[in-house]
């Protein structure tokens, strides 16, 4: 009986006609409301919840999310330059409630995959037929000496948007002209691969206009990065003498910090003072994924790419940044795309159908200067059970693209933001 | 359906059959949902520039995607994404968007330009862009209620030669000055 799923039940007994033979309890399970619990109300979780409801409104969908509002990481760099308000990246859950989704503001403390139950810190318990885990990332403070959650109040990571974004913005805006901003991008894999470099450009835009004697020093933990040639072109085109990038080969990256003194020490032993220090540490899947035993040695969650169902615990799907989704990137658009594939699979599986064939897209913009944005895109399908890039598709903004096209890409970046956030939260 | 289109569909169907053993075939809805991040849920864009896809005919969408893919129609990002799909997949997505109501962009237009544009529309555009640009069956795209920046980019590309105009359109556009063209775009954008 261990493998007696609802789907098998329908196949074996041929639906409700056999109810009297099998008995009322089985019938009540078979015909009862199917429940999906979504852990995390960010881009991946909220999109999955909404698209499950779109696919089958009879499914009972509950999102468990500790925060009353979600701040998007995408375009939070524009808050740093002053080109965007905090309010414009803040989203509530009323729109999702309007789709009939239950919103519970609580912190998940554990998942019992055997009993199909989610427990919360608030003492609540939720049964599920399928669970979707979308906890985003956790920051590995301990990978940098002297860095901690407390130190992040002085040296913000600003890699989970919200209060951290505000701290970094205020520091940059309070800094004297002639000051130094240090940005320390993390090693791979991490959320939003082009993000640290767009951040340099956005802070650079503010400094160039307001504090032109200042500089930005990027002390990278890597020797190359996403959209690298295009970013280097942007640094040269817009921020000559302001932004300098240093490879890990040169400096060894940031090994330790002294948050009170405002200094960092590199892997090669050089100490440097920054007026603003933005430490973006290495990352793992959000902590609940680890607590629930969904991560492997890499710190991320292995999944079956056809459905994003965990390969460790059946009945639980892991989507968004927490999953091992390569060659899909850990980006907002990919998280949304994974959520839709998973939503379709969950609806199909709960209705006794095959999960369906997936298709994914990633589209990612970086605004690198006034009227200047660059993008990367890719279309993916499933080949031999794995996500694969479709050959010949996608790619980067050309290095020689015209000023007209770059200006249009800014408007398309804003369209991306408006449309993806509406698609998630409205 | 033109002979050219029949040939191109037949050719691509042949290619699809050849590749069928390698990749799976997602539904039109699955494919169309991947567009929403830039073009809005169900192809209803919240702007400011990415166009609505909702309500346009499948034939227009397939034609456009083929042109993006080949580079015949200029784009920033669309051509790169178009290369990820087959013509049959364009058609499957096209069916989904064609089934949607035509949306209207929530945007400001200039009343004087709208009035001037209405006149230009009647004289020069109506034959191919019927019902004030809201007739999907004319396979000329949906211009009514479309985002103004998108309409402006399109016209800039037509005029610069980055995108080829149909002969009849080129003849009409040639006779219009910039102010008349701008007015016409406001007229289309203002349609509710």
From TrEMBL, chain A:
The keyword Transmembrane helix does not apply. GO terms for molecular function: flavin adenine dinucleotide binding; oxidoreductase activity. Residues 357-425 form the Flavocytochrome c sulphide dehydrogenase flavin-binding domain. Residues 165-281 form the Sulfide dehydrogenase [flavocytochrome c] flavoprotein chain central domain. Keywords: FAD, Flavoprotein. It comes from the Bacteria. The keyword Flavoprotein applies. Residues 34-151 form the FAD/NAD(P)-binding domain. InterPro entries: FAD/NAD-bd_sf, FAD/NAD-binding_dom, FAD/NAD-linked_Rdtase_dimer_sf, FCSD_central, FlavoCytC_S_DH_flav-bd, FlavoCytC_S_DH_flav-bd_sf, SQRD, TAT_signal. This is Cytochrome C. It comes from Solemya velum gill symbiont. The gene is fccB.
TrEMBL record, chain B:
The keyword Acyltransferase does not apply. This is Flavocytochrome c dehydrogenase FccAB, subunit A. Pfam families: Cytochrom_C, Cytochrome_CBB3. Residues 13-192 form the Cytochrome c domain. Heme c 2 binds at residues 125, 128-129, 169. PROSITE patterns: CYTC. Heme c 1 binds at residues 35, 38-39, 78. Gene3D superfamilies: Cytochrome c-like domain. Keywords: Electron transport, Heme, Iron, Metal-binding, Periplasm, Signal, Transport. The gene is fccA. One of its GO terms (molecular function) is heme binding. Transmembrane segments: none annotated. It comes from the Bacteria. It comes from Solemya velum gill symbiont. Residues 1-24 form the signal peptide. It is found in: Periplasm. One of its GO terms (cellular component) is periplasmic space. InterPro entries: Cyt_c-like_dom, Cyt_c-like_dom_sf, Cytochrome_c4-like, Cytochrome_c_Oxidase_Subunit. Binds 2 heme c groups covalently per subunit.
